[in-house]
Automatic annotation (TrEMBL):
InterPro entries attached to this UniProt entry: PDCD5-like, PDCD5-like_sf
A family per Pfam: dsDNA_bind
Species this protein is from: Salix viminalis (Common osier)
Listed Basic and acidic residues bias regions: 37-46
GO terms assigned for molecular function: DNA binding
Entry's Gene Ontology cellular component terms: cytosol; nucleus
Compositional bias segments (type: Low complexity): 26-36
Stretches assigned to coiled coil: none
Official protein name in the record: Double-stranded DNA-binding protein
Stretches the record annotates as Disordered: 1-46
Length: 129
């Protein structure tokens, strides 16, 4: 499964999005915008088609439910799955159980530790004299 041109198209699209967010993008005419939107749509369709080939129907449903709540997390999991497939680490369709274990691994790696520190402020009237 060779998806290097697709991966490059995704990278270029992401780079253009970042540049546009920072205001560095060149003002484009509507025709150029339409071409870019078509390219984005095509890349997304190829991405979904590849995921359809890699994931079982139950795993796709679970990933779709995750995307409803946390789209950025679902996108990250999709990226991990696609990269693993491109490197030949996935030999058979990913089952729901395997997807769950992958989600747990990713969750353990990205868990943020929160620390709460309470600082009490002293009032001007709180003198110890």
């Amino acid at each position: 499964m060779s998806a290097d041109p697709e991966l490059e198209a995704i990278r270029q699209r992401r780079m253009q999005e970042l540049m546009a967010q920072r205001g560095m993008g060149n003002p484009q005419n509507p025709e150029q915008q339409q071409v870019q939107e078509d390219a984005k749509r095509d890349a997304e369709e190829r991405r979904q088609m590849m995921l359809g080939q890699i994931l079982s129907s139950e795993a796709r449903e679970r990933l779709a439910r995750i995307a409803l709540v946390k789209p950025e997390k679902a996108r990250g999991v999709e990226d991990v799955i696609l990269r693993a497939a491109q490197m030949g680490q996935i030999a058979e369709k990913v089952s729901e159980e395997r997807l769950i274990s992958m989600l747990e691994q990713i969750n353990n790696q990205t868990t943020k530790q929160t620390k709460v520190t309470i600082q009490r402020r002293r009032s001007v009237l709180d003198d110890d004299d």
